[in-house]
Amino acid sequence: MAFFKKEDIESFSHIYKINLMNSLSGYKSANLIGSISKEGIENVAVFSSVIHLGSNPPLLGYILRPTTVPRNTYENIKDIGFYTINHITESITEDAHHTSAKYDREISEFEVTNLTPEYKHDFKAPFVKESPVKIGLKYIEEYYIKANDTILLIGEIQFFEVDDSMLQEDGFLNLSEGKVAAINGLDGYAIPKSLARYEYQRSKPLISNLNES
């Protein structure tokens, strides 16, 4: 196996370092965050850092890179207070990835891709019509991470919609049924296949204890 020390990481070329370090943690969620500016300009951008933070209240977070350059999604969320998270599927990976390109604030990524903005239930931010999982969120709070100058932004789920084919009787959402993508590194996309579900695990008696009895 290849072995790397911290000193090796620091010596890597820029592209090699970001490719390797972004792949190291494993597959990440593939999501499109939809937002809208005060001027009514729609924005949609790909993110691979959405995380579950809790079910009661229902919270999701995502990591925002340093704001030393314009971050339209972040600015829109702070201005409007609402945004959407939409799962990326196999059929829209190319268009979804293109939303990572840098466009002027006045240009909507919906206009330069085949992604379609969709408004539901009087929610203020656009959803992605092609997504099988659409989540509407309200901005709650954020935490500055001093170690690398990033921000953890937290939103509370207001409502969500999922394709019926993905929702199982016990509430489990089978993402493989919707061909939902995952991101490997910065630019690699995969379509995971559901392998197995296991029952809630309880501790077993140690073998030594069984022998003693």
Task: Identify the notable features of this structure and list them briefly.
single chain, 213 residues, alpha+beta, 7-stranded antiparallel sheet, 3-stranded antiparallel sheet, 5 helices, 12 strands, 32% strand, globular
Concise structural overview:
The protein is an alpha+beta fold. It has helices at 6-11, 14-24, 72-80, 93-98, 207-212, and strands spanning 28-29, 31-36, 42-47, 51-55, 58-64, 82-87, 117-118, 127-128, 133-145, 150-162, 182-184, 188-190. The model has no long low-confidence stretch (mean pLDDT 94).
Protein architecture, described:
The chain has helices at 6-11, 14-24, 72-80, 93-98, 207-212, and strands at residues 28-29, 31-36, 42-47, 51-55, 58-64, 82-87, 117-118, 127-128, 133-145, 150-162, 182-184, 188-190. It has 213 residues and is α+β, with helices and mostly antiparallel strands. It has a seven-stranded antiparallel beta sheet with strand order 3-2-6-9-10-5-4. It has a three-stranded antiparallel beta sheet with strand order 1-11-12, with no helix packed on it. A two-stranded antiparallel sheet has the order 7-8. The longest helix is centred in the first third of the chain and has 11 residues, at 14-24. It is globular, with a radius of gyration of 20 Å. The termini are far apart.
